[in-house]
Structure formats: structure tokens, C-alpha cells
Amino acid sequence: KNPLFWEMGCASKRRFLLLYATQKGQAKAIAEEIWQQAGAHGLEADIHCMSEMDKYNLDTEKDPVVIVISTTGTGDPPDTARKFVKKIQDRTLPPGHFAHLQYGLLGLGDSEYTFFCNGGKTVDQRLQELGAQHFYNTGLADDSVGLELVVDPWIDGLWLALKEALVLQKEKEDMNSVFSAVSSSLSAAPQVVHELSLSSEVQNLKLEDEGAKSSDVLSQKLDDSNLVAPARGIKPSLVHSVPPVSQSALNIPALPPEYIEVQFQDTHGENPHLSSLIPEGTTFEVPVTKAVQLTRGDAIKTALLLELDIADTVFDYQPGDAFCVMCPNNASEVEELLHILGLSERGDDFVCVKVKQGTKKKGASRPQHIPERSTLKFILTWCLEIRAIPKKAFLRALVECTSDEGEKRRLQELCSRQGASDYAHFIRDSNVCLLDLLHAFPSCKPSINLLIEHLPKLQARSYSVSSSNLYQPGKLCFVFSVVEFPACPARPVARKGVCTGWLAELVAPLLHPSKNALDTKRESSSTEKISIFPRPSNTFHLPADPSVPFMMVGPGTGISPFIGFLQHRQKLREEHPDWEFGETWLFFGCRHQDRDYLDELRCFLENGTLTHLKVCFSRDSSTAEVAPPKYVQDVIRLYANEWRNPLLSIFLIFFLFFSDKKNMADGVSDAVVDILSMEMEVDRLEAMKILAMLREAKQYLQDVWS
Fold it and tell me: Transmembrane segments in this chain: where (predicted)?
């Protein structure tokens, strides 16, 4: 009777509310995948961005709620969730405010950063505090190993959980006689709930099987005649598979509905201003006035310092702030992409981008980062992240644009459940992008509208300020390493980072052999300009009281913001000789002393701005009887007797890690915890609690960049 019960109860599709909060588009794409699959399971998702608070109301929501939310910055909810989070964080709300609410939450994050999935955890914890109940376990997906490892099984299990939640909701509402009758029997025999769960699961499989025929969430069976036995010794690659994948029936995602139409126009005009592409709305076009290579030519990484002239703008900053650089895609890659798409002659033609009439995509709209009218080349250069790793939904769409049957099969494998390992190894871990795929699968000829639908927004790149406006009025400096992506079998072309490669090429005429990064005299001038906008920090600043001691830990280019700190402190000391200034510690590490070390740090030590400078060189060999420390966490342990008293007095500690993300940040945190444990004679768990208290009090600050 239970299968009949579900069919009768779901003659019309049952609704659930689907909310997403995204920073770079991943959470939105996953929410849209859930929305697309819902129909095949007899459900209807009412999908909204979390910022659209006028379109939903959790205070009165009766249906189950599914939330997909990412994390940005140093553990913050995405910008699109700020208003929502502020509303639910209202401490005047009673503990049972959301007692009527049942929800499931999927958080997205990266475990290489300290506050993994903190955006999702923040919302999850607060909803629980306000009385909301889980109808499905929270999922936390890790981008460092592949979101799909958690996302795919989480979505698979969602449907049964939703149906059971809706059954219980229907029972409570007592909305029809069939439900009432079953509800009565359930109340008399609680064990039937388990039977209902099993029955729902059976029916769930039935619905999936029926829905798959129309939704394309399918099991593709191979004709024996199409199976080719692989030669012995052949290994899988981006374009070749081996058993069992090559001989498996495949479960592939539903084909995303097309929703964008691109119309070429004969008219001419001007492209939009770059400021129209960012929600902040205000950009500053500033000249690059100086470029210095900080590392020797034979260093493993090339580190550059750039100086920008902001004197004629209202751009303001404090040491410790960050700012964003708007960068274009590589010009040769854009031309190559146009050539493959057969649009080489039309790159400078203006196009009009609109929503396709009759599209099956619910709530379809033109992406905000795509101008309604611009040249095709402008869209590919400034709007789309053409280097983005293609999502499985994009691969699924590319299948339909591929004429060669073997290539089509391989693309199906790469986006299938059975090919998850191949996708992780040959696409995600190899940093394969659209261009690489189009070279590997030459019969694939996607339309430009497909690229607009599936490629994410080209994000501005964030950098830490490496100067002080007090020390160098009208100037803004920043330091970065040129990112290198060496060639590999899945991606035979070596590339530089989108922004760092562009900046390095832009300032090539300005580069000098001098390593004197802090010399303020202008060595040459430049007419090259870049567009920037501010990204101020709320906490990563010098202490307001100059008498408070502070410590800095910055390996490699992680030294960048601390140069600004020290410049600012030096100027304050010059202007206010009667002030009391606290001690300053700097722990700095790099690979080689003769190739990577900044001699200017000694100047700060000699003039008294810096009280203690402790350095280490990870790749230098030593003939000393006792090997010197290699990493900053080793130096911290070595000199613990000198600095632990300031820490125990709860003075300020500043951290920024630029090159190794969470691995080095964790190493330093572990060192601090060990020293706390020894000095305070407490176990490691208690020491970790003390460190957490320092974080909470904003006295242990960490800014982690990749």
C-alpha cells in the first residue's frame, strides 16, 4: 500500500525551497543541478539566491528547505548571504524561532584554509540554535580534493530524505483522507515508520527509473559491438579509458537546458567600462610607476614588487588591507579559442546576449557579469574565466557538440559517476581548461552561448598591500610571485597564472636588476595602467596602541603586508619620538638566502623599527654540526624562550601565509599550541582552547592566501 500512497500523495509535484549563496558560482551551479534533477523524482524545487529575501520567508516556511552555501575570505559567508546571516544572527530572536523549519545544508569549502566550510557551519549552527531541525545530514564538500566526492552522494541521498520529510509533513498537516488513514495506523504502530522508509526507498528507485527516461539521468548501455578490448599496457589518460570504466554502463548527469541566445549585430560602438562588471561599481585606473624583481634570476619562483600611483584618486588604504586587480585572459588564448570556435573573423563584432525564448531553465536570466551588448572578444577577454576547470555539467553539454563517437563516449565517461576518478585525475588535478579539452577532443565544436552558460565569471585577483600611505603618500605597492603551471600529459602546454602572468608581461620593460625593493626613488616611469578596487580588511591591521608588542610570521611573499606594517611603524617613530613603541618580532623564511632573501629587512632592524628578526632558509645546505631550522614553525620553536612571555601576556600576533596555504599555517599553529602547552603545563587540548580564545579576541590573526 505504501507505493500507492506515495503516488496518490504526489499526483502533483511536491515543493521544497532551495536556497543558494555563492561567491564564484559553484554553489549556484550545484543548486541548479539539484533543481534540474528534482523533476525526475516527482519533486519541484523553488530555487532562489539567498540574497533575494523578498522572494522567500523562512519565518513562515512550511516545506523542507535545502541550502547550498560556499565560504569566502577567511571563513566568511559569501557576499550573497550577508543580509541573511545578519538577520538570523539577531540575538533578540527566541530559541524556538525556527522550530517549524526542517532543512538540509550542503556547505562548500577548501580544507587547505583554516576555517573550512565556515560559511555553511555558521548558518547551520545558528539555525540549530533557533530550533530548526535537520531532515538530512549536513554535507561539507572539500574543493581541495574535489567537491564532487561529497556533492554527488549527498545529492543522491537527498531525494529519499526529502520524500520522507514530505511524508511526515503531509502526515502532520492531515491534508487528505489517504494520508490521515495511514497516519492513524502509524500512530498505533510506530515500527511502520521504518517500513514506510523502506517502501519510500523502493518507490524512489522506481521514480528515478521512470524519470531518467526523460531527464537524461540515465544508465547508458553499450552495444557489445562498440566495445573494443584495450591493448595490453595501455594506461588511462584524458582521451583514453580502460576497464572497468571503458566497459561500464554510465550514469551521466541530466543535460542542462540551454538558456542563452547570442545575436551578432552589424552596428559598432564602445565596449562597457570595466567598472560595470563588478558589483562594487567603483574601479580606479592607475599607472604602474615602478617594478622590481625581488628574487634572483635563478630562483625557483619569480617575485615582483609593483608600485602604483594613486595620488590622483580617492583610493585609500591601511597597511594590512587588500585590493583587487581586474585582469584579462591571455590574449593568445582568446585568439586560439576564437579560432577553434570558427569565429576568428568575428571577434570584434558586437553581439547581443539575451535569454533564449522558450528555455526550460526556471528563472533564466542573463548572467550579471555578461554585458547585454559588447564585442565577442570583450566577453572572452574580460568576462569569462576561460581557464576554469570545466564542471561535469559543462562536460555533459559538450557531449552534444561532439561528432566523433569515441570522443563523445570519453566525455560521457568523464562526467559520469563511474568516471569520477578519471575526472579527478585528468581534469581537476591536472588543471585542464576548456582549451585543453577542445584540443584533446577536436570534433567538439561548442557554440558561444554554451560558453556563456557554463564558464564562470572572470574573477578579479586579490593582493595584499605592501606599503604605507604614511610612508609613501600617493603610492600603493604590492608583492607577488609569478604563478607557473608546468606542462603535464593531460595539459601539454605550460602556462603562467592569469593575473600574475599578465602583470609580469605588462611590466617587463620596467624590470631592473636591483633588489632594493624599498628604495622610494622613481627609477623609471610607465604609461601602463591597471584597474583596481579596494578590499579593506576589518581586523588585519596594526594595533591602535603603538605600545602593544606584536609578532609577524610571513614566509616567502607572505612578508608582503608586513613591509607595509614596518614602513608605517618607522614613519610613526620618526614623527613621534616621544611615543612608547612595543617590541616587534618578524619570523621570515624563504628557499635560498642568496636568491630570495630581502636585505631591506636588516634596515628595519638597524633603525630600531624591528626589534627581533628571525630567518630560515629551507633549501640551503648546511655544514653546521646542528642543522639550522628550515621552516618558520621551526624557528618559532627554536626561539620560544625569547618570545613566549609576550604571548602569555596575550599580546598581538599577526600571520599571513601566501604560498603554501593551510599546510604552513597549521604548522605554525601547532608550534604555538605546543609552546602554550609546555609553558602553561596544560595538555594539548587545553592549549588549543587557549589559542581559540586568542583568535576569538582578535589577538591571533591569520590571513591565508593561495
Answer: none
